[in-house]
Every structure is written in C-alpha cells, then in structure tokens.
Amino acid sequence: MSDWGEGEVETAIKVQALIENKELSSIFYLRLFFFKSACSQLSSSDYHHCTSNSLSSR
Fold this sequence. Notes:
Layout: H1 6-20, H2 28-39, H3 44-54
Helix pairs in contact: 1-2, 2-3
C-alpha cells in the first residue's frame, strides 16, 4: 500500500464534502471503503476520530 500524503488527505476531505452535499451519494459504499482505507493510515486515536467524522452523515 502507498503512504497517504497531504494531497491525498486534502482530496479525501474535499470528496467527503461533495458526498455530504449529495453530489456523489450514489457511491456510498465507495466512500465507506475509501475512508476506512484513509483512516487506517492514522494512529489509533485519530482512526476513531476519522471514521466517526467520515461516516457520521448519510
């Protein structure tokens, strides 16, 4: 697996914002996979915060 850099994290945040605006709501399961992958690169405490934020709204 490749490491996540600042650019990927910023992109993830922007994608999350689009999804929350229902613009990409059709790819909910991709969002689930994408954010679990992104969050898994963080420390355990940040992982919980990351997954909670990314999956809080549907």
